[in-house]
Amino acid sequence: MRKIVQAENTPKPLGAYSQAVKAGRFLFVSGQLGIDPETGKLASDNITEQTRKAMENIKAILEAENYSLNEVVQTNVYLSSMKQFNDFNHEYEKHFDKEPPARVTVGVELGLGALVEISVIAYNE
Fold first, then answer.
1. Which of the chain's ends, N or C, has fewer CB atoms near its CB within 10 Å?
2. Domains present along the chain, CATH in parentheses
3. Residues of the chain scoring pLDDT < 50
4. CB neighbours of 68 closer than 8 A, spacing ≥ 6?
5. Sign of the torsion formed by the C-alpha atoms of 90, 92, 94 and 97
6. pLDDT at residue number 65
7. How far apart are the C-alpha atoms of 11 and 89, rounded to whole Å?
8. 47-64 and 85-92 are packed helices; what angle lies between their axes, rounded to 10 degrees?
9. What's the CA gap between 65 and 114, in Å, rounded?
10. What are phi and psi of 103, to 5 degrees?
11. Residue 52's closest CA among 68, 70, 33, 75?
């Protein structure tokens, strides 16, 4: 079974992709920038604030399908500068208080001048 997910009070996709796709017990959440859903703009020009907002958006998408951050098994993180890794990581780890998921972190150029983009895969038993 495959279901397209669009959570309320979260930023709409910026292109031709779904916000998330539920496939069986897996939920694949597309990359989320630190966009404020009310303004449609980046929450700030600060890596910590953008990370926090991206994680809040991810949490809202997960909760729309009755998942939680504790059920995230994989994250993919894209940073516009690896020099900001420590500041990113300090905020990120606050959202996974026990048994954090597997993670890939790479440096790339991001759209909209974003400093961070995060995608996740969650599994619900």
1. C
2. 2-123 (3.30.1330.40)
3. none
4. 59, 62
5. negative
6. 97
7. 23
8. 40
9. 27
10. -150, 145
11. 33
